[in-house]
Amino acid sequence: MDSVTGLISGAAGGGAQANEGVEEGGGVRRRVPPIELKLVPLEEGSEVTLNSDVMILQRQMDRRKAVVYLTLSGLLIFTTAFLLGYVAFRGMCRLCGNDGELIPLSDAAGAQHAPEGGVMYMAELREMLKKYLTEERIESTLRRVSRASHPPGSSEGNAVAREILQNLQNLRMDHTWTDSHYATLQFPSRTQPNTLWLVDSEGEELEEIPLDSEGYCAYSATGTATGGVVYVNYGRREDFEQLRALGVALNGSIAVARVGGAVSFAEKVWHAQEAGHVGVLIYPDPADVPQDPRRLGLHSNAVISEHVHLGSGDPFTPGFPSFNHTQFPSTQSSGLPIIPAQPISANVASKLLSQLSGSSCPRGWQGRLPYVQCVLGPGFTGPGERRVKMAVYNTMKPVLLNNIFASIEGKIEPDHYIIIGAQRDSWGPGAVKSGVGTALLMELARTFSNMVENGFSPRRSLLFVSWDGGEFGNVGATEWLESLCSEESALLGFALILVHLSCLFVCRVKPLYLNSGAYSFTAFGGVPAMQLHFTEDARSYPFVNTQLDSVGRLQELLQGRLGSVGRAVAELVGLMVLKLSHDQILPLDVTCYSNTVQQLSSKLNQHTAQLQSRGLSPQWVFSARGDYSRAAKNLHEAIKNSDIQDERLARLYNTRIMRVEYYFLSQYVSVVETPFRHVFNGRGDHTLSALADHVSLLRSAPHLFNEARFRRQLALFTWTLQGAANALSGDVWNIDNPL
């Protein structure tokens, strides 16, 4: 901790040595449903309100429409709450209606009666929140954080960390501290840039193709790779299946994939690696990413950078915290790729793809690159046999990461937390990637501090966190989570709401994804999570994960309304925090997974004959589903018929709700080899999705069905589901489980 204090305060020490040589420019979909919000047109001189049908930030409008777009995509604000039973699909919580629309934060759910001891009504707290939120501080903090690139371990990154720590210490917080981890991060080499060539059949270099020196894929394998080029569309699993069906030779070639397709860079590289490719190049296609600089678009030489570790946290300490690498045996995440990956610009992609020969692309694969007639490769047109050679020379460096915490203690349940957090670091200026989140975090911390000074007493503790290492796979947040995993009680005291902002408010339910900062909390730690994603339909912001993500471009998109729109977003998040810290019973629906397992039951029923012919029966999973459904229904009825003003009883119900998510972590797989152990939201052979995919082979490819593997999958899933049912029941002997 002394070394942490030394770094944050600017003093020399071990942390500085660890970060030496790190330059400032070092630059799966899960079923837990987040919420996507859209911002409706705003008009000056009006107030933000919550109407009776749906939570919508709106203002009075005259006949002249003024549309303000907030694009804060890629931003990670966490609102982690010990509470939350668990969230899945459409019925994730009482905050959302049946159609995925966010309902008002009314007093009915949590403040029907005035609690004793002078606790304020929700309506009073709303007014207090509005009173203390300000536009000016949001914009000024954003400008300060985004004035230059500030990757982890850089001088600018450490300067931003010191200022945030000092600002939090100046507030009336109960506690302020730092949490540090030594993590292994990958940066471009300062002496040997990544390169790309066209070569002949003998490997002789014919032409070097210039690359952006600042663009790279963190955690790429290093070295060289040479082969033909195959266009793989978005690099999704189904894209590679289609290429195989067309008979395209993939083995030994270099894949060229375009950004997007609802898959991360890490997933694109993983799929290419599984298909036999020896390298991957990833580019932004004008069909997916606007590329007209005159209209807020990328220029055609710009690249988009993203890490390619199929996981989160430090990949060299999988499943345990990276306090000091010398304490642990040498190991690495199974999600690290073994083939090199590199981002390229649209111009470079056009140069390569315009020269390909081979089969024509399937329908829907055609992008908008100039001079490109969409063909798949792997050969090149013209005389001679030409190939592509790529070389990646990124280097690993130990970096001291610093998460910064400040807390306001709860008055009734001080050991239960709501965590509001944001990513602090960025490869570029990061106005949207980290700046907006940090600005909202700091303004909410200041606002709630003022509210406490003026009579607000939160039921549960509030924890404000500035996470480090987000660009490399949410390393800081994941390492902190891993440090708690040795104490089950610590994990059972948390749950997570990830707020991912980008524009226009209307709530929609969508799955989380691997790069989400909330993903590891649920999939690894068994902590409930949901994500609020603000998206804008009419106009996109294409600069996230580039060196062009600046305050100026964001202001241009918002037509100078950054402060006012930022305040509106802060108010919405603040209202959610108020509700989560105010309600006696956590406002979450525990019946959601019953519907999910019912879908599996239906699929198993479709294959009854094939299973019975192999001596297999899904009866036990049906029984476990019934137990869970009954336990969830009984808990719901018990809460409905109880006096929730009874603090002991309310705490008992809340504990049973939040234990469910933890018990959906499979206890039968290794946390090191399979860190995402959650059977619904994790990754691996133990998950519900893997089981469903496997049973589907009985019809699509019966020769690939593995009976021994299926027996194991079915048994492990059933045992995990039964354990969750027992935990939710609170009394295993009362579960009706007829044989």
TrEMBL record:
Domain Peptidase M28 residue range list: 403-482
GO cellular component: external side of plasma membrane
Record membrane topology: Single-pass type II membrane protein
UniProt keyword list: Cell membrane, Disulfide bond, Glycoprotein, Membrane, Receptor, Signal-anchor, Transmembrane, Transmembrane helix
Any one GO MF annotation of this record: transferrin receptor activity
UniProt main location, coarse: membrane
Region (Disordered): 1-27
Transmembrane segments: 66-89
Subcellular location: Cell membrane
InterPro entries per record: PA_dom_sf (IPR046450), PA_domain (IPR003137), Peptidase_M28 (IPR007484), Peptidase_M28B (IPR039373), TFR-like_dimer_dom_sf (IPR036757), TfR1/2_PA (IPR037324)
Residues covered by the PA domain: 226-291
Single GO biological process annotation from the record: transferrin transport
Family label: Belongs to the peptidase M28 family. M28B subfamily.
Protein name (record): Transferrin receptor 2
Native source species: Cyprinus carpio (Common carp)
